[in-house]
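Pipeline run #58 for the internal structure catalog. This entry was flagged by the ingest filter as a single-chain record with no existing model, so it goes straight to prediction. Upstream metadata was stripped on purpose; only the residue string is passed forward. Reviewer on rotation: M.T. Logging verbosity set to normal.
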Amino acid sequence: MPLTSQVILITGAGGGLGGSAALALAKQGAELILLDKSIPKLEKVYDAIVEAGGPEPVMYPFDLAGANEAQYQDMADAIQQRYGALQGLLHSAAEFNAYTPITLHGTKEWGHTLNVNLNAAFLLTRMLLPLLQKSVQASIVFTSDSAVRRGQAYSGAYGVSKIALEALARILAAEFEAGQKIRVNTLVPGPVDSPIRKKAYPGEDKSRLREPNCMDALYCHLFGATSIGVTGQVFDAQTFTF
């Protein structure tokens, strides 16, 4: 179990991609902190991990959009108290409502989407960096979206947030130069059967989509020893091979 004793926090852990990643990493022995605003969704993932024989995870109900800086700091302090360090951070939480023209985009929806998809990722990363730096090796993985990352029409705040998130990942990777203990990469799932995909393309034939567990090996690679020294990269899950 190559991820034994590796502590990894996953945002959006109750979602399709986050939940699938959690199960894959737990099967490799990772000790997980499952973060999501929905307790029932967290409980479902928790039960799946325990049933699969993985280490008992920690559920951390948390509203990324509504939390203030002090609450993020409280989370970091709690992780410090329990584990002392952190080896992985997976940003899998995402907010998407519908494809909308900029001319019709509501300001409240715009702000909320940017808060969840971008601002929360920045703040959580900043607060957890001291814990990641305490590890011999640590991995931060941001999740982008192939459908919007080049400025697709009508992708609105969701598209802006994903483009900006990739920039944040590149900047952070550049600040932690290759060879340092923290590596930072971006994962692009591509067309996968997920809740966001269903919202974006409600009429799509889902039988033609890959299941979220198609990325299990890639998640394990990004948080495992095989990716040490690899940083500032964008990994396309649809074409990734070892």
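catalog note: DSSP finds seven helices and seven strands in the chain.
catalog note: Residues 96 and 158 are 6 Å apart (CA to CA).
status: ready for reviewer M.T.
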